[in-house]
């Protein structure tokens, strides 16, 4: 029951247009968005990975340059000689060697402008320390952490993180610095004879790394082999342990409810460059594709609604209207006509419907006329059964009066008979009035009074406003005749017949009651049965069937005759019919 409205072609047509236009757009838009998002995300990953690789290459080149310059120090004979201080070396020669060593360090600093200073420490503390910057002096460093770290590295390069304080002078520099240190071994014995330390300005390195961004919140950072920040966009993080677990390869992370891509790249010195890429920001283009797809879908929905309404008006509504007209025609309304008679198939269907209804109306009208004539002929045939019997009984009565030499009564009876015959000839039509029928009954009773010597009395009760109501002619006479011959005549004493006319709503009731001998129930049940095989003596059954069938033919099966009787108590005949116009039912009987 809930889906009954879906059976309507209007709703089906609308759903067809709506779903047919919006579903493909939504499905294609969804697939297009997912595909474009995947492509954009893949491209972003590739670009970000390539960026991290480029940064790693630059850092490797930067660190390698510094490492290569440190190799120049390790391979310097002058620095080896100064740190070994052989016994045959004179103070003058030692001073010259230190001087030349400082010039070497200075030349290295000039070629690498990012190097702030180079320091050489004598582990034997014979020559203490000398630097490329002869104007600078440094405090005691033999107990410092970085010094111990360089000795433990056993000749390998040691990198120290970015700091705002000088590693050597322990003072604020005003700019960030980081360090490189290596132990210097004797070429002859292999023992550590010195420690080399580079203090390097980090401005260029930081500026280069700060320029690398991924969206508004993406960034890169550099961690050492202990996963501590060497570089981070926030200087407060320098030297702090990284909160992000270092991945072995590129992976996605959902930290802080943000979908990010973490891209690691290992440097040649064992450190890592890590890029943190916010995918939501870098895949904003796919979001614009999604929004564009939604606008297309919305437009498609509006277009589908418009097309659905257009289809309903041009196709659905005409069909629905035609269906309603067909139901009305099926219910009997043959005046309906379709207004949609265009050139398309629906118009052809409308024209065919109009033609069909017109032909049915003509056919029904023809059948109705034929049925009307047929029913009228049946009524006449019934009446022709009544009239001969009525005439026979009347003439028989006049014959007996003539035998008894009742000349005046014969003359009056013949005159009354002529008047009765004129009233039954239907010259004024099939219908008369209730008042006219009662007048004919009074004339008929004159003849019967002559025959039965005033043994029978007739009483009538009819409101004046009902006297002009139409009624089929000779409708009451057969019943009165039956009451006389079969009810009162067999009695010895005097009898009465009472006729009462009443109105009940739109219906009229005529009750004819006598105080005759009455009938048993079996006879009452056979009175109105029509059977060609059953022959009934007398006219009792014929007269009642005539009246009953006449009423039904003109007014319908809802009306007719009802008989109530009991032996010794008389008989009551009730006639019911409508105040409808003459021939109304007969003319519409075929519908």
From TrEMBL:
The cross-references to SMART domains, in alphabetical order and at most eight, read: HAMP, HATPase_c
The topology of this chain with respect to the membrane is: Multi-pass membrane protein
Keyword Cell membrane (UniProt): yes
Q: Which GO terms describe its molecular function?
A: phosphorelay sensor kinase activity
Could you tell me where this protein is found in the cell?
A: Cell membrane
Q: Identify the species of origin.
A: Paenibacillus sacheonensis
Record-annotated HAMP domain positions: 313-365
Taxonomic path: Bacteria, Bacillati, Bacillota, Bacilli, Bacillales
Q: Which Pfam families match?
A: dCache_1, HAMP, HATPase_c, His_kinase
Give the residue spans that cross the bilayer: 12-33
Stretches assigned to coiled coil: 360-387
Q: Which UniProt keywords apply?
A: Cell membrane, Coiled coil, Kinase, Membrane, Phosphoprotein, Transferase, Transmembrane, Transmembrane helix
One GO CC term on file: plasma membrane
- Name of protein: HAMP domain-containing protein
